Amino acid sequence: MSSYFPDVSAIKYEGPDSTNPLAFRHYNPTEVVDGKTMKDHLRFAVCYWHTLCGTGSDPFGPGCAIRPWDQQGGSNVEIALRRVDVMFEFVTKLGAPFYCFHDRDVSPEGKNLSETNAIFDKIAAKLKAKQDETGVQLLWGTANLFSHPRFVHGASTSCNADVFAFAGAQVKKAMEVTKELGGVNYVFWGGREGYHNLYNTDLRREFDHLAKFLQMAVDYKKKIGFTGQFLIEPKPKEPTTHQYDSDAAACTAFLKTYGLDKDFKFNLETNHATLAGHTMFHEMTYSSSYGMLGSVDANRGDELIGWDTDQFPTNLYTTAQIMLVILNQNGLGSGGLNFDAKVRRESFEPVDLFHAHIGGMDAFAHGLKIASAIRKDGGLAKFVKDRYASWDTGIGADIEKGIADFGSLETYMLAKGDSAANTSGRQEMLENYVNRFMK
């Protein structure tokens, strides 16, 4: 079999002093941190869409990426089959244990649904063979319900019932293929589930339809015996003005309102968090607090650009914060760190895909070590515990236990007096404290 990356060997760990751009400086898959190997902590996944299907196009120009596997030509199906070889060569040389895809990333549409499904089966058979050959696993599958013109008004929230039906058929097939390939999660991202203009939108009806769609998915999951975790990926805008899965809090409220909260967790993305006006630390902490954190899209945005730039993660503060939350909840379970990120338009050669992923994997491995050191030191956890000490005994404990009421609070304050002395939050001291571990 021909190599698509002939000048790249398997990427190895060479340590922090290495100057080799095609080597890991921090990601050592067998290194044990907090009782688990880095490979088990981080569960890295390569995404199909940006890595193999991205061309470097942007709103101001067509793609300029050099992608020999596509430029050899052939039918859409022939190109799709060739991409399978490229993906598994790339993932195995990189040393990532997982990959993930949208259905239309790996398999093109045919002239009708029947032909489309048949093509998908053909591609899936080759994916399965390559998984068996390499040991690489599927972190998650999902369906692209946003690119085709039929989804111009959304998928499950479309004003057209036929579109809802088509979307259901498409998700049914994507779930079946994900199960066949041993996928350990399945993701729902509502790319066009939202609105541009409320003048033409029945908002409550669309929410109801979205809930019905997800319940159908839950029912079918049980019917086929799929044991993977369902994940929802929040995003506030783009391509719609307002998307219904806008952030972790909105998704939690939606799922609880419709009784779906036990069936779903979240796949959080850093760039989506910042578009929602949050930090990723906030979205991670909120989701984990409610037992909803399931997986992570590992990327970042550009503070100077107001859209979803999907850049590779390089900020150690962000990766350390993400890993701190993950360690505090004892891991992601079946989830992982998926690089939903794309090389910049100017980085158009195939080798740039390696440079980008190596940097992202090293940034998270470094962040893991920083987070582990912060937890081992214990100073941050102790400060938070001490700050809330008044809730552990006395009137605070009574409030949390639900045995206090306004009358008892009044009685307590009349006896104690009006004094309610606060202590400093020490924000700057804590920021300095975290800086001590950034090395």
UniProtKB/TrEMBL annotation:
GO cellular component: cytoplasm
Record carries keyword Metal-binding: yes
Signal peptide: none
Principal subcellular localisation of the protein: cytoplasm
Catalytic activity: alpha-D-xylose = alpha-D-xylulofuranose
Compartments it resides in: Cytoplasm
Keywords (A to Z) from UniProt: Carbohydrate metabolism, Cytoplasm, Isomerase, Magnesium, Metal-binding, Xylose metabolism
Pfam families: AP_endonuc_2 (PF01261)
Entry annotation: catalytic residues: 102, 105
UniProt cofactor(s): Mg(2+)
Chain positions recorded as Mg(2+) 2 binding sites: 269, 272, 308, 310
GO biological process terms, semicolon-separated: D-xylose metabolic process
Cofactor detail note: Binds 2 magnesium ions per subunit.
E.C. numbers: 5.3.1.5
MF GO annotations: magnesium ion binding; xylose isomerase activity
Residues annotated as domain Xylose isomerase-like TIM barrel: 118-281
Entry binding sites for Mg(2+) 1: 233, 269, 297, 340
Family designation: Belongs to the xylose isomerase family.
PANTHER family recorded: PTHR48408, XYLOSE ISOMERASE
Assembly notes: Homotetramer.
Protein name: Xylose isomerase
Source organism: Limnoglobus roseus
Lineage: Bacteria, Pseudomonadati, Planctomycetota, Planctomycetia, Gemmatales
Name of the gene this protein is made from: xylA
